[in-house]
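Schema walkthrough. Field components (list of strings):
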Amino acid sequence: MNQGLISSTDRVDLGYVKRGTGKIPRALMLLAVGIIISMLLILMVSIGIGGIGVLSWEFLSNPPENGMEEGGIFPAIFGTVFLVILMIIFVVPVGVLTAVYLSEFTRADSRVARLIRIAINNLAGVPSIVFGLFGLGFFVGFIGTGLDRLVTDGGRPVWGQPAIIWAALTLSLLTLPVVIVSTEEALRSIPKEMKDASYALGASRLQTITRVILPQAMPGILTGGILAISRGAGEVAPIMFTGAAYYLPYLPTKLNHQFMELGYHIYVMATQSPDIEKTKPILFGTVLVLLMLTFMLNFTAIFIRARIRSRRTNV
Amino acid sequence: MPELKFKPKSKFWEAFGEGFISLNAFLALIGILLIFIFIFKEALPIFTDAEVQKEAAFSKMLFKQQYYEGQKPKWSWQPNSEVPKYSLLPLFLGTIKAAVIAMLFAAPLAIGAAIYSSEFTSKRTREMIKPAIEILAGIPSVVLGFFALILLATFLQNVFGWTFRLNAVNAGIALGLAVIPIIFTIAEDAMTAVPQSLRDAAMALGANSWQVSTMTVFPAALPGIAAGVVLGFGRAIGETMIVLMASGNAAIISIDPLVSIRTFSATIAAELAEVVFGSAHYNVLFLIGTLLFIFTFVVNLGGDLILARLKMKIQGNTK
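Field assembly_structure (string):
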């Protein structure tokens, strides 16, 4: 349409000397996409093929036997579920309230808000093994041992040892940024008119938060919680020293018990097994179970998030 | 009569609730401070305790040491030998080697895919690339470690016939898989954040779509792409389970990428469980943790700063 306005000599004057269309670079970029997707497929298909054979109700419901070369993974599943439930109880309230504070109590460019945001971003970037060190030094060594001084008379430690509660607390600090970011996004999607209406009806800020804002943000909070579970269920380094055990003959029922966990179980079987060939089928099965668990959680979260986003654009 | 839903307010509960929320918001800040304090606290004896310094002074970790009579001084990490050796150089070399290989593998793939996804593809293909990246991001690192240890290492050894089955390249590739989603996401965000007005202006000046992308959008988004690479590098340095499982864990001084390596993070993971509480070895492992913490803290702060600047610049352009 506008071709007539700009002659080809003008284009040269404008500095566009080479008028390439970038066929080769574009093909290379497409190749990059192809390599990423095919590596993902290779990973998933090889784990799927290796693991599908051992999946059965017995595998999911029985404890390991014979030095983990036979039997199932029920204690690891139980420990993982117990662990993430505890983690969620700690992380969701704190994460949600932090997000509420950031979006309702302060301006985004205030000094306090910026400081908290820097802390959250850095928390998300701290290596998971550092969380493990922290959990051992702070929760087990400081809080746990401190509690023991209060409640026991110097006998065997009750709290000052690796335990599921310390592992869950460590993980909740690690997943805190996930919950905050997800809740914040949901809070931002709430139309301002809704809050205005609430204030116009005479509600206080706290009432507006508990009865208008939080119910509206529920899907976002749910997404954050699910993503946190998915992240927490897959982390091994933070729980290695804070509560996870190679093998336990009993299921953890108290907060100061140690526990078995899927990710840690994979690590143990893959690296400490006396005969890796015999452990392999069960190992693949365990990896497949962990992968399916995290994918299921992630897909649910992505689905809910997509619905929030479409709601926002529809408003 | 419509029922009045809001009860009369109680001043006490209002103040209590608001105070509680405000206090809560500082937990993230307190958390990051506590992490630093409690890790550094356990590393502190290296600098203050003479007894610990005899075995593991900080200078002994940095410089060549003569451990036995008549032997040349060398750098060595052997904390459990008769004469404990705590040189950090082999671990540093291993960490850098793994992270650099991971970046060489991941950065071109992730940046290429990000540019392709934001510039040259239809909405439908993009809907395929993005979930694939999200799936990759959701894979637990222990699963990537397992993949590298059991499948990738065997495959690479069969194809290339390497002496060490578990080596820096094997670990680096698996590490790269963990880093790709980080670089991709940040780079793609930076590209799509470039305002339409810039593209329109370039188009109006007669540029074709390839020229718009390479001469206008890419330079504008370059700081964001750099931030993605920096943050990806930070992740590669700190990642634990992948290198612990896939790198062979031998602290060797060599720049050959095909020998086994031992990284900082994997050293902590492998040795902390067996170490005596409060021993010099224990202090050294926490010192390594402190170094990792400080390094990732600086990297993250730098990456975020670049991104914040870029955001301001781009928003400024549209006004």
